[in-house]
């Protein structure tokens, strides 16, 4: 295996020879073999070890084991302890995902601050196959099947074309010591079943399984890349950013075959789980929504709007007393001051006749059945129709304050004043109301 | 299961109720159950049975079994015997592929001539999973993983969301009879191992395996569709048809990430097997080639040329005697006739001074080191340089005849005459040489 490894470095990763590398070493057989191979190939490396503190004394034992190993090799050693469980529960993710995030974040930091060029990890061909099968069995999007690649930005996995068997044989030949990981990672049971019951049968059916599987994954990964290229090409026509998030143009989306897959690719990082509901929004009525823990997707006329989910704290109803000068509410400050005459007008400033108002005023969100008398118009109009005519999006409607005098609407704040409260020749006292 | 089937027809395939259907019935449990379900749902169908004549008396037994069943149901019955082995060896494909081709071809013919609207087959969820695993184990392009869909043009597979277990339970409940297929299809051993050793372990790890696998396959299929959309978008910029086949523009291809996958998708129907060699052509020297049984792909300057493979029969060397008037060679007829004066000139017609020629003339392909004296120019030029300057593609060069007098080139046939043989004032006898 040593010969093959050296050859691999020479042909595929020649640039590893003249630069500083950071080796991720857990103390397990795979990473110990990687470190040993790198030492024999005279590569210039440091060793980084994560202590996830998930297995008490055992974790600490791993750390000192790897530290001693680094001392024997006379290479720099870095270690870091992580509050993995705490991080996982704070982020609401699995311990495993937490460990992965923490590890790569720290490696990248180490890489930059200590002038290492590349990070090397000890993933091998069986890891990739097992992960593929886990994801296949659990059910997954296409990412779950495309596996990890030999090189991804600054992370290189030079053992990816070697099998577990080769690695274990090398460890035995070279009388390497290593630590067995007794962790009960959430997928450990599944991984063991796959390792001992599925993969051997598959290998019996095709002894070249790992090689042909590597090609299959290349295909899948390249397909994923193509899909991403395609979507980045469609993106400018398909998606617009607006004040509240993103607008996806349904007229355009509907013309594309496989629109579900496009939606999936666009939205995959927003933690939706009910994908069928997401896909059904394309043909749903305006106003329908689907929620993820962090976001919501709203069918709004001929678009889908993706916005952050609002935390529904804060009241929906505020009172503005007669003697008050201002009131802070979410989105801005409402100010009321007496003026001697009407000044310049603007969307965020109106003038009203004080004697027409019934204090206290009320500031609230709109509700079904609301109507007003648009300034400068005879007669009344339903708010619903006003919003429709002015093409308010759903988040915009939700965000709009309504200033009321009793049951009557005085101002659709920052949009349109009501005709009933306007200043007239006989007005005795003028109030300027502004918001912002 | 009957209820679920009726519900499926009602919700997903309501149009099956008012039209004529063609049921593919082998006599196995799956297709017998499908026929029974269709009868109970009062669908209007005929039964089609293929006799592939692969298992002698057993095949004939299947045929009469299905015929009797159709008579009991009082539905039209169609059957056809196929020379499957013969067809397979003629086409150079596996028996299994041959059977599939023959089956769908005949079904489609039956569908059209007997006014059936749709073809129904009995593929179920386990079939799809097993085929996926077979392809995964053998190694496959992404098509092999994306499986078959519930509806594809005029073929509908209404059992695709049902498991083998449900189908077998239904057969038992309804006391259906069926024929066991003893065929030794090439994948039978593999399929059995997968069915009995892999799938049960996977089901144990996820009892909802078939459902989540169906979603995974939807993803894969949609991804494939997206890739095809993308490629059809790139196609006009990437590929040009020319006289000899297709030209793939490498300047353009190189700008696209995942160019291997693009090449794979473009070329997948041309029976290449050495895909790494194909991919390497992108960075290879001009002149490099990769062969499939039917085609070859040639690196030719900044393009890849896909041409049909030539059958290398026919000589590369012909002799034209002094007393001959014409000679048929691949690509046309070479004619030589005395004329009294130079007539109109054209690319496919030259005039030479007879007394300068050494008979017999030789017609051959170009070879390294060839040079000539281009008509109207002083001095000589290497053929290699001429071809390069005139931007001959490799197949074009191979296709070009060279007319020689002894070692001297008289004519790059249909391209350029040699200056040394031109008609001059003192020429006594003029010959017109033409080709076409």
Automatic annotation (TrEMBL), chains A, B:
EC number: 6.3.4.19
Gene Ontology cellular component terms for the protein in this record: cytoplasm
Keyword Nucleotide-binding appears in the UniProt entry: yes
Superkingdom, taxonomy of origin: Bacteria
GO molecular function: ATP binding; tRNA(Ile)-lysidine synthase activity
Residues binding ATP: 26-31
GO biological process: tRNA modification
InterPro entries referenced in this protein's UniProt entry, alphabetically: Lysidine-tRNA-synth_C, Rossmann-like_a/b/a_fold, TilS/TtcA_N, tRNA_Ile_lys_synt, tRNA_Ile_lys_synt_N
Catalytic reaction(s) noted: cytidine(34) in tRNA(Ile2) + L-lysine + ATP = lysidine(34) in tRNA(Ile2) + AMP + diphosphate + H(+)
Chief localization: cytoplasm
Parts of the chain that traverse the membrane: none
Function: Ligates lysine onto the cytidine present at position 34 of the AUA codon-specific tRNA(Ile) that contains the anticodon CAU, in an ATP-dependent manner. Cytidine is converted to lysidine, thus changing the amino acid specificity of the tRNA from methionine to isoleucine.
Identification of the protein by name: tRNA(Ile)-lysidine synthase
């Amino acid at each position: 295996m040593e010969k093959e490894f050296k050859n691999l470095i020479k042909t595929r990763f020649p640039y590893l020879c003249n630069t500083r590398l950071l080796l991720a070493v857990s103390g397990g057989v795979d990473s110990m073999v990687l470190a040993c191979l790198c030492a024999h190939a005279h590569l210039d490396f440091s060793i980084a070890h994560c202590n996830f503190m998930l297995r008490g004394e055992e974790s600490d034992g791993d750390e000192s084991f790897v530290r001693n190993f680094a001392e024997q090799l006379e290479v720099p050693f870095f270690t870091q302890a992580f509050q993995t469980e705490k991080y996982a529960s704070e982020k609401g993710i699995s311990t495993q995902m937490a460990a992965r995030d923490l590890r790569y974040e720290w490696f990248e930091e180490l890489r930059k601050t200590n002038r290492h060029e590349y990070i090397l990890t000890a993933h091998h061909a069986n890891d990739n196959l097992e992960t593929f099968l886990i994801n296949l069995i659990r059910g997954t999007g296409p990412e779950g099947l495309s596996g990890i690649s030999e090189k991804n930005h600054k992370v290189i996995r030079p053992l990816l074309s070697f099998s577990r068997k080769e690695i274990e044989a090398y460890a035995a030949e070279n009388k390497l010591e290593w630590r067995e990981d007794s962790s009960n990672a959430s997928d450990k049971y599944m991984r063991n079943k796959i390792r001992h019951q599925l993969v051997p049968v598959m290998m019996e059916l095709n002894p070249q399984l790992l090689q042909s599987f590597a090609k299959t994954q290349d295909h899948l990964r390249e397909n994923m890349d193509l899909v991403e290229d395609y979507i980045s090409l469609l993106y400018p026509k398909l998606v617009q950013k607006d004040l509240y998030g993103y607008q996806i143009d349904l007229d355009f989306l509907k013309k594309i075959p496989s629109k579900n897959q496009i939606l999936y690719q666009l939205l995959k990082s927003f933690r939706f789980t009910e994908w069928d509901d997401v896909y059904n929004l394309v043909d749903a009525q305006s106003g329908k929504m689907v929620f993820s823990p962090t976001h919501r997707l709203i069918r709004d006329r001929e678009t889908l709007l993706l916005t952050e989910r609002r935390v529904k704290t804060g009241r929906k109803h505020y009172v503005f007393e007669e003697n008050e000068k201002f009131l802070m509410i979410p989105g801005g400050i409402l100010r009321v001051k007496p003026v001697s005459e009407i000044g310049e007008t603007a969307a965020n400033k109106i003038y009203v006749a004080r004697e027409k108002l019934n204090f206290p005023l009320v500031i609230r969100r709109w509700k079904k059945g609301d109507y007003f008398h648009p300034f400068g118009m005879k007669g009344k109009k339903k708010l619903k129709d006003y919003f429709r005519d002015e093409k308010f999006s759903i988040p915009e409607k939700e965000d709009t304050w309504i200033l009321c005098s009793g049951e009557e609407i005085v101002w659709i704040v920052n949009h349109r004043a009501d005709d009933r409260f306007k200043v007239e020749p006989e007005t005795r006292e003028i109030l300027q109301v502004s918001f912002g």
